[in-house]
Every structure is written in structure tokens, then in C-alpha cells.
Amino acid sequence: MELSQIKVMSKEQRMELAKYIRTDPELQNVISGIGGLCESASHGRLIGTITENGKPLSRVEIAYSVGGKTDVKVHTNQFGYYQIDLSEGNYTVTILYGETPVSQEVEILNGKTSVFDQDFGEGKEDEGSDSSDKTDTGDSTGDDTGDGTGDDTGV
User: Fold this and answer.
1) pLDDT tens digit string along 8-67?
2) CA-CA distance, 109 to 56, in Å (whole number)?
3) Given the DSSP bridges, would you call strands 69-75 and 61-66 parallel, antiparallel or unpaired?
4) Residues 6 or more apart in contact with residue 120 via CB below 8 angstroms
5) Helix, coil or strand: residue 141
6) Taking the model in full, what pTM does it have?
7) In 41-56, which positions are buried (b, 16+ CB within 10 angstroms) versus exposed (e)?
8) How far is CA 134 from the centre of its chain?
9) Are 153 and 75 in contact (CB under 8 A)?
């Protein structure tokens, strides 16, 4: 969405946008100008929000692996948000919720943020989204220590 699109929104559209922003800690950081991953960082970041019918799911396990070996598992916070700092490379990320885990291949690039969101709605499972060039904007809930190890210490 471009800034000009926001400027021409109706009052009702702006209220709906504000409601969404208030429930997403990462968007709150964008607006406040807080956090973010430095473009020259020696690691990348994976973030995402896990929901069911649009409602955040807390304590959902997120596992990531390289070459079939699962390294570490982290958990979503009370907003359904997770964050993992990883070395550059290709990872298989698996969301362990419900009867069927959901996995996706994600490319992590140094200084970039990738996104893998998932909604477990009625008969609706997103394929997730991976936007390796999406700029990260905050570190509000950090399920990771930021040292690239994926330690689950932020929740």
C-alpha cells in the first residue's frame, strides 16, 4: 500500500486500519520508527503471525531446519507473533499446530526480513507468505536473542 492510498481513505477505512495496527506489534513499531534490521547485518530475520480465523494463536511451536535437521523451536507470543534471527541460507519452516503441520521453504538473506504468516481458518489454510525483500521494522517481542541461534527467550 502506498502512502497516497492511506491519505485518501474514508474515516471508516482509517478506523479499520487503526484497529488492525493496534493488534500487530510489528506494525506499531513501523509507525513509531522503532527497531528494524540493519541492512548491513550479518544475519537475516524471519517473522510471522499465526492466527485462526484472524485471531492470534499464542504458544504455537515454530520449527526450522536446514538439510533435514531441526535446529530449534520457538513459540508465538500472545499476539501470535514470532521472530527468529538466522544465518543466510535456505530453511524449512514448520508451524506445529493442529493435526497437520504446515511447512514452507524460506530463503534468509543477510540484512533482510522474510515473512511466513499462517491463518488456520475454517477450511482455509494460507500457503504463507515469503517476502525476503520486505523490510523489517521492529523487535518488539523477539522470540530470539538476536544472536542467530534461535534461542526461544522472548516469550
Assistant:
1) 888 898 888 888 787 777 777 777 766 677 888 899 999 999 999 989 999 999 999 887
2) 27
3) antiparallel
4) 50, 51, 52, 53, 57, 97, 98
5) coil
6) 0.64
7) bebbbbbbbbbbeeeb
8) 11
9) no
CA distance 59 to 67: 26
pLDDT tens column, 108-139: 999 998 999 999 986 544 444 444 444 333 33
Q: Which residue has the cell 506499531?
A: 28
Instruction: Kindly tell me if the per-residue pLDDT of 76 is higher than 60.
Output: yes
Q: Is 85 strand, coil or helix?
A: strand
Largest CA distance in the chain: 50
Mind listing the domains of the chain with CATH numbers? Answer: 3-125 (2.60.40.10)
Element of type H or E holding 65? strand 61-66
Q: Which residues lie below 8 Å from residue 126, measured CB to CB, with a gap of 6+?
A: 117, 118, 119
